[in-house]
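Hi C.,

You asked whether I'd gotten around to modeling the 452-residue construct. I have! Everything is below, sequence then structure, no commentary in between.
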Amino acid sequence: MKGKVDSVWAVIFNKQNQKTILMRILINIIVLLISVFVLSCGNKEQLITNSEEYAQYLSITENQASNEAKLQLDFWNKRIKKDSLQLTALGPVASAYTQLFESTGEIKYLKLAEKALTKSSAIATIGKSDHLLALAHNYISQHRFIEAKEAAMGAYLLGTNTKATEMVLFDVSMELGEYDNAHGYLEKFANQNDYNFLIRLAKWNDYKGNLDATIRNMEKALKIALSSKNDDLLLWSYTNLADYYGHAGRIKESYEYYIKALEIDPANAYAKKGIAWITYSYEDRPEEALKILDAITDTHQSPDYFLLKAEVEEYLTNEIAKKINLIKYSNAIKDKSYGDMYNVHTALLLAEEYEVFDKALEIADLEIENRPTPQSYDLKAYILLLKGEHKKALKIAEEFVVNKTFEPVANLHIAQIYKANNLLGKADPIFEDLRESSYELGPVTSGKITNL
């Protein structure tokens, strides 16, 4: 009898188990379906870019701006004989070389532009200030800021093109960290209806950490550019506004303005890089970012693209691909023509990746000598932190960096330095604020904040 009862209970329990198992399966399926639905909705909200929209620009192999510059160069070079002092041709030749540098990233063109401008500024008697200011701009592009200031001051002393000179002196002063001088020059040419004033006022407000005012002034400048129908002004306005919108977390508008830039210049590498950053840092699509960056480096030669590729590969935990891109960067900057243009990138690479701290500190000191800004001092303080010299890092940070810049990277370094010196009361609030800057910092750096 007992055996029969046991067998009955076994059947009942088996049936109950079956029902329980079936119920659990159904619940798991429902939960899975809900999760998939929620995730898919989230992804749709997260997706800002449209690959069908920007794909047409990734396949561009013909660079219209570059082709036009080459035509101009050919035209004017035919009018310059060896050892000639044909001044009228030197300016347009320098302009064409500058355009070639901007459209291809090839440093040789920037150096050729410098050569033409050095000659033209030396021999010019009429319009000499224009040649000197163009040379100053060239030096700024090469990160030769002290020489840029000398050229601009040379133009200023001539007293023939005062407003244009003051604008360049504002630019140079900002690069050199001479902020009082920069503000003084800004006040001299203040005009709320002038494009060149508004874009500089935007830069000043960005330095002061007033992003709303920065965007507001750039939007005013854009209206002027639109009314002028000047493609160069529009292109500059769109790409800069796209950057600022990104800083403000207005990612959709940022993307739209990068697209507007590409509609003007389909080969524009800067706009494509901006879209790559959105796919990587906001949409969490690193593979798509690499696809865009690969398309850029097919036609544009700036070494920093290899560093960005390396960062994305690190995020994907592709260590070999990361190292290959770092090697490509190192090989690219062996060209001495780059001079000091990539000092910051190289110093960070030496310290973070290879722990070659003394060489990195040498470069940081050189950068401070050339460009004594809070960012340059931050570079040195951060390298000292990585080297383990926490007290020295703290001293430099508190004297030259704290409350002197609003850049997220610098603030991250300050927080890290505070933490290393057991000043958690100062570090923790900065870490909390930095969580709002995760888009600007990127997934790799934001991950470090989480770990800290």
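If it helps when you're writing up: Confidence is low (pLDDT under 50) at residues 1-13, 25-44.

Thanks,
B.
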